[in-house]
Design goal:
Elements (H helix, E strand, L loop, with lengths): L5 H25 L11 H24 L1 H15 L6 H25 L3 H14 L7 H21 L3 H26 L1
Length: about 190
């Protein structure tokens, strides 16, 4: 694939976020399911941070031990993050974290069921969203696992804030670490 420019990456993130939000809104319009609530409470904020840090640690371990995931993650992160500036990384954390969680955990999960089947479908759908090509299946497997973790956190707490915070934190940490690693490798 040819590399994209900074503006193309930012536009793609924005358009993807809008499309996911529209799908979530249409789903709520045509279905009787209600949105998983977002409640601000210190315990749930701490759980969201803990889940995000846990995903980040597990991702780091998978990156070290699983060569296919490492290659897939490096390809994906280089493609998406290389053109972005440091302030752009905030958008990298916020846009997918909010829009993907609203659709997959906020709308899809309650509509299908706050149970094992809902967790399975939500996680698999989240993984498939991250498919950027047939050679990237290791990244899809990892995204599916993350989708399961985020869905479980939503079901256990009954609060959409938990997976939103975890997702945003995971994206921010991985983006900043990747950018920092690239900066250090140039020196």
């Amino acid at each position: 694939m040819d590399p994209l420019s900074r503006m193309q990456i930012l536009a793609a993130m924005g358009v993807t976020a809008i499309v996911l939000l529209l799908i979530a809104r249409l789903w709520l319009f045509f279905d009787t399911a209600s949105l998983l609530p977002v409640r601000f409470s210190l315990p749930d904020v701490l759980i969201g941070i803990g889940v995000g840090l846990g995903i980040t640690v597990i991702s780091s371990i998978a990156y070290q031990l699983w060569p296919l995931y490492r290659r897939n993650a490096d390809f994906y992160l280089k493609f998406v993050l290389e053109p972005l500036t440091w302030p752009d990384l905030l958008w990298m954390g916020l846009l997918p974290g909010l829009s993907e969680e609203l659709l997959f955990r906020g709308v899809m999960l309650p509509a299908i069921g706050l149970n094992s089947f809902g967790i399975l479908i939500s996680g698999l759908s989240f993984g498939v969203l991250h498919l950027s090509g047939p050679q990237q299946w290791g990244y899809v497997v990892w995204a599916t696992i993350v989708g399961f973790i985020l869905a479980i956190s939503a079901v256990v707490t009954g609060n959409l804030l938990v997976p939103i915070l975890a997702h945003i934190l995971t994206n921010l940490i991985s983006s900043f670490f990747w950018k920092f690693k690239q900066l250090r490798s140039r020196v």
